[in-house]
Amino acid sequence: MKHYNVAVVGATGAVGEEMVRILEERSFPINHLSLLASHRSAGREYYFKNEKIEVLELKDDSFQGIDIALFSGGDEVSKHYAPLAVQAGTVVIDNGKYYRMDPDVPLIIPEVNPEDIKKHKGIIANPNCSTTQMVVALKPIYDAVGIKNVICATYQSVSGTGKEAIEELREQTRAFLEGDNIDIKVYPHQIAFNILPQIGSFDETGYSSEEIKMLDETRKILNDNNINVSATTVRVPVFRAHAEDIHIETKKEITPALARELLDKFPGIKVIDQPDVGKYPLSLMAEGKDEVFVGRVRRDLVFNPGLAMWVVSDNLLKGAALNTIQIAELLIK
Amino acid sequence: MKHYNVAVVGATGAVGEEMVRILEERSFPINHLSLLASHRSAGREYYFKNEKIEVLELKDDSFQGIDIALFSGGDEVSKHYAPLAVQAGTVVIDNGKYYRMDPDVPLIIPEVNPEDIKKHKGIIANPNCSTTQMVVALKPIYDAVGIKNVICATYQSVSGTGKEAIEELREQTRAFLEGDNIDIKVYPHQIAFNILPQIGSFDETGYSSEEIKMLDETRKILNDNNINVSATTVRVPVFRAHAEDIHIETKKEITPALARELLDKFPGIKVIDQPDVGKYPLSLMAEGKDEVFVGRVRRDLVFNPGLAMWVVSDNLLKGAALNTIQIAELLIK
Fold this sequence. Notes:
Two copies of one chain form a homodimer.
Chain A: E1 4-9, H1 14-25, E2 30-37, E3 45-48, E4 51-54, E5 56-57, E6 68-71, H2 75-87, E7 91-94, E8 123-125, H3 129-145, E9 147-155, H4 163-178, H5 209-222, E10 228-232, E11 242-250, H6 256-265, E12 269-271, H7 283-286, E13 292-299, E14 306-313, H8 317-332
Parallel strand pairs in A: 1-2, 1-6, 2-5, 6-7, 7-8, 9-10, 12-13
Antiparallel strand pairs in A: 3-4, 9-11, 11-14, 13-14
Helix pairs in contact in A: 1-8, 3-5, 3-8
């Protein structure tokens, strides 16, 4: 079996650390692992398979001899370094948004559109966290009866923003309980015990960049420019996992029972749906788990035919690091 | 000006305490104020207009001489005591759900359907908190262009459940930060740093009682059985104020600009809608405020014609105590 030289770019971030952990957990066939980060984070040490690896500063020539680079370093890093990596013969799998809508870059969820990976020209993109878990849950229904319209409200955890946001929620919460002044640094408003209807920046139509991603990326992944997604993306005071309320207008009738059955059979989905005994997906339940959890599957009261459901997944795992590594697994298959 | 003998039933609860405060704040014309509660809470003392009032135990004969009784004591209390009060000549305004769908009981939001109050036969009902703020925000759009369908996801604070839930969120949060065991008493799952897609109990269709209320009560208040409301009601770790993501299919076209203008003119609504500079309604902003705050007004991407918007209000005030007292003001007008 071939083994690969793999680099993680942005290795010290919340997603980068999960990538390193998952590469080990899933026994990705690695010959050599390079951990790359900014000058500020270089020198830190991580353990990988009991071996200590020092984080190196990301430079223009960092990709010599690297087969696969997993990027999670932000837009500017992707913009500058991904083309350099491709020139060096590396295949880049980018967790960021910079290349997602590039027509030359496939946007991949391995369970949903694996065949699109063949079109890659050196860069493959990983979808946005809130898109991935939604599209995984839509796909079995889409295949069975078709989908015309989706309305989605999100309940997104702070870890999607990064380590500094996790610390901000914790510190603001402590300050609130102890009656101290509350410092606001990462988000535009206090996040502790508050709800912020903003993720990303707003365009002139009043939609946020996160909301537009959910429309554009869903269309690209499903190869269907007729599907509409109207999303409201919202930050909530939760550390990890995103929850989503999803209302679906299907093309043909489907019963909730059949939808549950198709969802449960689909790779990567776990159905938890006995609300009468308090069993439904929860943010806390999804933390650290690979699955997309689906519950509260019911007939929609507006869309007919249609369904409503509640979808929860760990935004750092299936929403980011796990899906990136599943793309790498698909690539080498 | 006539002054009234007023009783507050459930005076020591989260809503009851707000009722007493608002009666004073709005200078409701009171001759005598009776504070009534269970045997357990009797004997507590509250100040009303600098006068100390002792809470009395609620009994079958508590309503002799009472003109108006504001009930917020739970279903069993309403069921037993409201008819006794009516027999004693008292007009009951009930904050609970027990009488809301009774055809003999008007369900009133004073800004929305004041004329319905004339039909009362001794009992008037106050709508559910999540319904009230939604219907206030729908009404100016409904009047201008008609509404066919509404899809709503809620972000509801723990204070809607009562004082013990406020304490549970605070205590679980403290325990989480300090690494202590987390006690779960009020909710079926941990609420601190978690999201619960359950409010009330579930029926066989998979909808919760709170979600069904949002459909049934909206139809009753708007006197329109053709409007559909598909809701997902969700508890979030916030102390006070409910937020709602609302997608509206209108009958005729309306621009977001006109909708904002009509909303801002409507009594009780404040529009905050400059998302590009971080201005939109927040749970924390609504705490202790009378208004229904509306923002993020935009064209919906699924409903055409349609709008999406974000609506926040204090669930204990416009969602409960304030609306109850506004009904009383309408009654005596």
